Amino acid sequence: MQGPGAEGNEGAKPALSRILVVEESILVAMEIEEELAARGFTVELAGSLLAAEERMRGRTFAAALLDCHLPDGHVLEIALRLADAGCPVAIVTGSQVDTIPDGLQKFPHFQKPVPARTLAKWVMDTLAPC
Length: 130
Prior knowledge:
Layout: E1 18-22, H1 26-38, E2 42-46, H2 49-56, E3 63-67, E4 69-70, E5 73-74, H3 76-84, E6 89-93, E7 109-111, H4 116-127
Parallel strand pairs: 1-2, 1-3, 3-6, 6-7
Antiparallel strand pairs: 4-5
Helix pairs in contact: 1-4
């Protein structure tokens, strides 16, 4: 499937259409993936920090939706690296906003449960041309 910004090569995953979703719940991740794919995006799923690091290796992303608390830690370092590379980042959390680790509070955040269509709309709005 080709997404926004794709031109030609069917096997390519252009950065303009690739979204990183880091979410420990596979069912939630699949729901988000479905919403984004319906809008033409290619989605890379990761359920842990380790998996996210593997997905990020050698790739760039148009945007990222990151679950704040994962089984193997917090996403702070990943969020900062993505943001430093120019990737818009949003944090999705079941925790109260005041318990989000320092450094993550500067990113847009969504309180769980949040509809996948709301997250997809954030991606679309964030990537829309000015």
